[in-house]
Amino acid sequence: MEQDERRKPYSIGHVTKVTGVNASTLRSWEQQGLIDPSKAESGRRTFGDDDIRKIQEIDRLRRMYGYSLAGIKRALAEQNTTAAAEGADAALPNADEPRMEQIGARVRSLRLAAGLSLRQVAEKTGLAASHLSMFERGVAFPSPSRLNAIAQLFNQTLADLLGGTSTSGQAIIRKGRGRIVGSFGPGVTVEQLTVSEELMDCEVWTLAQGAESEGFYAHEGQELIYVLEGAFELALDGGDVEVLGAGDSAYFNSTRQHRWRNAAAGPTTLLWINTDVKRLASLEGAGFARALKLGGPVGSGLGEAAFALELPEGSRTYRVVDLHTAGHPTRVMLEPLDGLDGESVAEKRESFRAKHDHLRTLLLHEPRGHAATFGLIPVTSARADFGAIFVSSYKYLDMCAHGTIGYARALDALGRLGGRSSFSLEVPAGIVDVHLGRHGSARNVSIDNVASYVAIAELPLDEIRPGYKAAIAYGGGWYANVDAGALGIPIQDDDVAELMELGARIKAQINAALKARGGPVAEIDSTLFYEERDGRSRQLVVLERNKYDRSPCGTGMSARMAELALKGRLKPGQLHVVENVLGVPFLGEVLKETTVAGQPAILPQITGSASLSAFSTLIVEADDPLPNGFLCR
């Protein structure tokens, strides 16, 4: 033991001073088998020069590259193997050499999970396929703008790709003790002070001479840039270039297109702060006062000049954006919902149903909603730009056009689109493309809906009226298309109650008939009444005996368009305008004809617009006798 003491003369206190690693962390590393100090019978630990070098290397791997304990063990084992093969002079990796294989491997796993080839990712991000391949193998790194494009493609943030810090709430961060991202693009070194932990991501950027973003890019959140030294060139939205010197700063919404460059003859150093949208979602409501123009001039109104509310202990809050599409509501949940199982949105819906169905009733049922309230739960998607689960007061839906139109408007209002006019959306029924600003109005939202087709051209409804028939068609949901005009019932306000009663009877009769005959259609979701009069088309979709769609219903409209196309009354490129009972129209167009399981089908596009109606915080107090709501029909 005396020989061991002489070989390892340093106390744990001395090692903490030399390496900057605290004693509790050293003991943890010892328990994990990363280090092996000598221990006297008294329990006193001592360290030698080799131990100190190893501790410094472990700390470097942890801070600079974000390695896990398992990753550190593998890296140390590889270094030992190399040293044994090449001699003791085989040096440990230089701290200044960027190691990019982790980030590249993360991108490769995301690409494979999404089922995309190198060429497909290259086409979507503007990065050469060969460069992307080198990046995935850890031998090259893309520019910041291209890395941002890669992150957005997989619904990731840059912090998600690069990894974050683990300060565990530590308030003080000493100079040089941040986590180093050795090469965030050519000539760029980033020291992460705190990333992916709190509301703000705070970093110190060092740009080598000539380093630049290599193009404009945009992402979510807001950012503040403060120039510590050097000269920083910044351009926003394609505008004039501004050069910022030491002490100058820039603050802007990150959804604005921006590019930058080091304009100094030497290095430029910046304090760069970003906010994260998911963490913004947990802000107090007062944090949105400026955007909503709340708390205006002081008056006598209740709560005026203050947007704050003291809640009892144990209260839960849920923030939502409410919209309506041609009169039918959509409530979009803003709170991030993690932990849903499944790769596809359809699988995540089943996970939501099993784990969080109480949120559906809480959000949509009385007293916070009503029978007709419709909800949308945003989820991540590995296959599309965004994902969405559709929920109603009584069921889950595969597809909803009015809800998608509302969601597009909400994403745009919340700055989530980053200036894009189109995006893809994965829903349980599949992937649809969504476009903003078509057909002459910036408010319009157009949806390239799922393939729509007629399963049964004529199904007798003799119990309703002898000779009366319905067409059974799919447009994202199953509908019975019936002619209200043939029954002598106009689609207007005064007749909605009669149509709801009749629609419920038709739905029950058809579902009984479908069950008896068997076949691919097990049941319909709704009854669609249509009326063609005076050159106008109207439709009313009855969902339940006491519930109807206030909008013209885009999925029902797709099913009706499939019927018209089958009858030769609607051709590709021909527009089809349908009003709801309130006289508000949707615009339909057959993009192309196709087939589904050998049957004629169409790919319809539905266009409508949505209006914001509320930005709300729903509250559930701990002693609320009806915390998950109720529904009186």
TrEMBL record:
GO terms for molecular function: 4-hydroxyproline epimerase activity; DNA binding. It comes from Segnochrobactrum spirostomi. It catalyses: trans-4-hydroxy-L-proline = cis-4-hydroxy-D-proline. This is 4-hydroxyproline epimerase. Pfam families: Cupin_2, HTH_31, MerR_1, Pro_racemase. Residues 9-78 form the HTH merR-type domain. Keywords: Isomerase. Its EC number is 5.1.1.8. Belongs to the proline racemase family. The keyword Isomerase applies. The keyword Isomerase applies. Residues 107-161 form the HTH cro/C1-type domain. One of its GO terms (biological process) is regulation of DNA-templated transcription.
